[in-house]
User: Which sequence fits this backbone?
């Protein structure tokens, strides 16, 4: 099956019901049992959905830097990966539940990828063609080639980012939440994204990213906003609700917000692909 071509909830319920040759009440009970079992396989404890992932991140992610050497030998990583592999994302009902799941999945499988190949100096070492440009042209980047299973379907990091997160939800804050294991990526958050606090977490991520002088900065002398290449590569995402820099103005520092205007120039900073360790 093509990654992401999940059956619709109504179809999924019909398939479950068809597996039980009983009356309506029994079928309803069967659905409840199946959903509960799925929830447990993904989350572990019903009231602690991403608890193990948060434990893992807090143990090995500090100020956006990842201790891959320690992560590599932490048994919780395999347990978290297994939770996501066994998940049934088509059963997630709300936008917040879905977005949190896919952002967390992207970050979990990126951590798994790097941990499996560590020590390396850059994720660019993992492409199946020489160099990022050539690999991108021929569709042979690690984001295209690295495959993993979620709910019995094959996915890639590029599919999650472009076909699910960007295409379905059209929220530019996603770019501040997913992490490509590189220094110029927005810093990896040291806790899982949760459906009930997702908006606050996404705002936090964008604010932290845009106020980090390593990732983005403002030159008052030339009235130039120097932005991460992310804002260049995905400019269309950031300009759905207005032109740069107006669309990201709420996430800039108060000092920069008061200085920039229609005449502010924008330049993009070279991307540092060094590993975020």
Assistant:
């Amino acid at each position: 099956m093509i990654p992401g071509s999940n059956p619709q909830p109504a179809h999924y319920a019909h398939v479950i019901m068809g597996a039980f040759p009983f009356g309506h009440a029994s079928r309803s009970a069967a659905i409840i049992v199946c959903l509960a079992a799925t929830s447990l396989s993904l989350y572990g404890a019903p009231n602690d959905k991403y608890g193990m992932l948060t434990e893992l991140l807090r143990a090995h992610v500090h100020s956006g830097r990842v201790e891959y050497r320690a992560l590599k030998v932490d048994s919780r990583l395999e347990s978290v990966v297994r939770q996501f592999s066994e998940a049934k994302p088509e059963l997630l009902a709300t936008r917040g539940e879905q977005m949190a799941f896919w952002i967390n999945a992207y970050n979990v499988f990126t951590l798994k990828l790097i941990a499996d190949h560590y020590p390396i100096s850059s994720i660019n070492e993992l492409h199946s063609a020489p160099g990022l440009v050539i690999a991108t042209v021929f569709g042979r980047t690690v984001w295209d080639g690295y495959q993993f299973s979620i709910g019995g379907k094959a996915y890639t990091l590029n599919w999650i980012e472009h076909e699910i997160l960007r295409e379905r939800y059209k929220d530019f804050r996603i770019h501040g939440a997913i992490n490509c294991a590189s220094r110029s990526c927005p810093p990896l958050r040291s806790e899982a994204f949760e459906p009930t606090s997702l908006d606050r977490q996404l705002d936090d991520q964008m604010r932290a990213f845009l106020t980090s002088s390593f990732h983005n900065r403002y030159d008052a002398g030339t009235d130039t906003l120097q932005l991460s290449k992310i804002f260049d590569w995905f400019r269309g995402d950031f300009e759905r609700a207005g032109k740069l820099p107006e669309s990201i103005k709420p996430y800039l520092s108060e000092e920069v917000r008061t200085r920039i205007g229609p005449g502010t120039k924008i330049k993009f900073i070279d991307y540092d692909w060094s590993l975020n360790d």
